[in-house]
């Protein structure tokens, strides 16, 4: 396998370990500076140049995209995807996880534990927002930040309002988040590779520091995750569209609370804590999946005119309840069920003999006209407001006439 590691820091611990692991396994590996690429676009021929030379063929890439170059880095990864090169993490997954608000918005739709969070811009909304997350103390976070940078603890409502207003005055977007007091300055980092949590450690803040990041002096200990925490880390990674990730979780009263999902997790802290060859596990995963490059499913499925993808919910009292997918009439109308969501379970490519229940959600592909009739009537009415009749005169003429009338009326008042 010929592997390219996209990194602007070839001497960093993580980059060196990944290169060593690939060398030890007999793969060809090269560290490529992400900022030295040129993206060429031409009809039917996406291409890349590196240091002003045409890039040779690679079987796979491993992105290590820093927060400061997210936009350009994801563009480079996306270009590799268009060239059918396998990427350990997808460009969309990196973009999803890098923005804290975006990642929580995605997770909030699923049965994944997250601290209660709010996002506001108007300073008059700050106090009600703090009250909605449970009152002070609260955590205030910048939307982009790593290693605990841009994470603040406000002990009182007044200090929280002051911090938020100050940051917003500097054109910074911030999240207001419930302070999970029971975590007591501790969190869990679960390292996910593919469909396994290969390592986990607990980080404990020291002294008066509430942030447990290793870069903030946090102490670490290797741990074995129970099934609930392991499944939460795996599902969050998959929902985000990542294959390699560091999932940070708080230990809340109601179970795991996802804080952040890191698409370029550092290896130094967790390898030294657990004494596991995590870099090797990442390289082995890439080698075993190199034949399955990223495919934008929606892009591919909706390229045909009149076809699309939608999610169909089955409410209480629906005719399909109790019938199987095969007998529901979906397949007869050329509607393919790609995935079935039932509570917290995700069932890909469900069998035709699976019985449907109230509350099920079906991800379907088919003709848009057929799919439209499957959307519940109430939802359809809400999404399709009544179309008003167009005026007889052209709209531009009407606006012009109204403007003239207003000018005349203003002149009369002035006289």
From TrEMBL:
Transmembrane segments: none
Cofactors demanded by this protein: Mg(2+); Mn(2+)
UniProt keyword annotations, A-Z: ATP-binding, Ligase, Magnesium, Manganese, Metal-binding, Nucleotide-binding, Protein biosynthesis
Signal peptide (residue range): none
InterPro entries in alphabetical order: ATP-grasp, ATP-grasp_RimK-type, ATP_grasp_subdomain_1, RCK_C, RCK_C_sf, Rimk_N, Rp_bS6_RimK/Lys_biosynth_LsyX
Residues in ATP-grasp domain copies: 104-287
Domain of life: Bacteria
Residues annotated as domain RCK C-terminal: 296-380
Pfam families in UniProt: RimK, Rimk_N, TrkA_C
Record PROSITE patterns: ATP_GRASP, RCK_C
Name the record gives this protein: Ribosomal protein S6 modification protein
């Amino acid at each position: 396998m010929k592997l390219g590691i996209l990194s602007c820091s070839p001497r960093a611990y993580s980059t060196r370990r990944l290169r060593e692991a690939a060398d030890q396994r007999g793969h060809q590996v090269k560290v490529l500076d992400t900022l030295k690429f040129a993206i060429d676009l031409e009809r039917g021929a996406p291409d890349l140049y590196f240091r002003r030379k045409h890039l040779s063929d690679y079987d796979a890439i491993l992105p290590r995209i820093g927060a400061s170059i997210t936009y350009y880095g994801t563009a480079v990864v996306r270009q590799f995807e268009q060239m059918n090169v396998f990427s350990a993490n997808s460009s969309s997954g990196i973009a999803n996880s890098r923005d804290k608000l975006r990642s929580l918005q995605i997770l909030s739709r699923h049965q994944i534990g997250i601290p209660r969070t709010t996002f506001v811009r108007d300073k008059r909304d700050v106090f009600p927002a703090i009250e909605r997350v449970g009152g002070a103390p609260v955590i205030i976070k910048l939307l982009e930040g790593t290693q605990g940078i841009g994470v603040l603890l406000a002990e009182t409502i007044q200090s929280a309002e002051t911090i938020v207003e100050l940051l917003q005055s500097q054109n910074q977007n911030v999240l207001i988040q419930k302070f999970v007091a029971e975590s007591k300055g501790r969190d869990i980092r679960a390292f996910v590779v593919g469909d396994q949590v290969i390592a986990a450690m607990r980080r404990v803040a020291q002294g008066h520091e509430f942030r447990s990041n290793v870069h903030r002096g946090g102490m670490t200990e290797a741990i074995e995750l129970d099934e609930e925490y392991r499944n939460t880390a795996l599902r969050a990674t998959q929902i985000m569209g990542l294959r390699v990730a560091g999932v940070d979780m708080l230990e809340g009263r109601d179970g795991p609370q996802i804080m952040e999902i890191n698409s370029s997790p550092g290896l130094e802290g967790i390898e030294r804590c657990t004494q596991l060859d995590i870099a090797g596990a990442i390289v082995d995963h890439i080698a075993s999946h190199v034949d399955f490059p990223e495919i934008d499913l929606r892009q591919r499925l909706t390229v045909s005119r009149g076809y699309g993808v939608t999610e169909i919910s089955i409410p209480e009292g629906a005719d399909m309840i109790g019938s199987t997918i095969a007998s529901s009439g979906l397949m007869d109308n050329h509607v393919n069920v790609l995935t079935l969501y039932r509570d917290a379970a995700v069932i890909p490519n469900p069998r035709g003999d699976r019985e449907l229940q109230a509350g099920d959600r079906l991800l379907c592909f088919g003709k848009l006209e057929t799919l439209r009739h499957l959307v519940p009537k109430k939802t359809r009415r809400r999404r399709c407001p009544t179309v008003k009749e167009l005026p007889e005169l052209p709209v531009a003429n009407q606006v012009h006439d109204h403007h003239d009338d207003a000018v005349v009326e203003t002149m009369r008042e002035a006289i």
